[in-house]
Design a protein that fits this description.
Blueprint (H helix, E strand, L loop, with lengths): L1 H7 L3 H13 L2 E2 L6 E2 L1 H6 L4 H6 L22 H5 L6 E3 L2 E2 L4 H10 L3 H15 L10 E4 L4 H7 L3 H13 L2 E2 L5 E2 L11 H7 L4 E2 L8 E9 L3 H12 L4 E9 L6
Parallel strand pairs: 3-10, 4-10, 5-6, 5-9, 9-10
Antiparallel strand pairs: 1-2, 7-8
Length: about 250
Amino acid sequence: MKKFYNRLKFNHTQLYQQLQQWLGSSLPCVLCDAPVTADSARKSALCSHCFDLLPWYTSPRCPQCALPTSSGALCGICLQHAPAFDHTLTPFRYAYPLNRLLHQFKYHQQLSLGNVLANSLFTQVSIFAETARPQVVMAMPMHINRVKQRGFNHALELAKQVHHHCGIVLDLEGCVRVIDTPTQAGMDMKTRIRNLRGAFATHRSWQGQHVMIVDDVMTTGASMHAVAKVLKQAGATQVTALVLARTLKNEA
């Protein structure tokens, strides 16, 4: 039998390499199952059509809370009741099909999607001049009960990617969630702020630091405001929110 295979001059290594190449050139798009080329797959799990269909946020928005404004100036809400965070950077509106991808990532532990989605965050960080870049990046804190329930902190997975790609120091325990508050779905901004009172804490000094907080979606900004307020009280001079998507009123 061995002599028979030798006569066939069967090259197992070459076959394995060809199989890898074939699999890499026919990966299915996570949204429509169309083939994704090998080069594209390294950058995204989406085909070019679905990538273009993502709800990119290109219109002018308030630099502080990222709600739409006609000229890109501060919105009336931030002028009257400014949140504790100073800037919001986001590449997407929270709409289909991004919401579907985020749901798979957060609730079905498709962690590979976190890597794909994080790619869109890197260009947001690049707007900072080298001297104005955040010194520290952290994930939106999640209570330990939620981490155990879900199995991981989705915001931390995104923050890790920002850390690796942008070279910003990642802080894992500088701010923690000490109260497991009820879900905030359906609450308005004022109710959410009351609900989050005392929910976050820090036991270190943030004196003079520019901190970037990473999360998946900003709905009202109440959670980001609560964390930023704690950091500012501990000496942080600037807090930037980096989120994958911003919920807009007409899409909420």
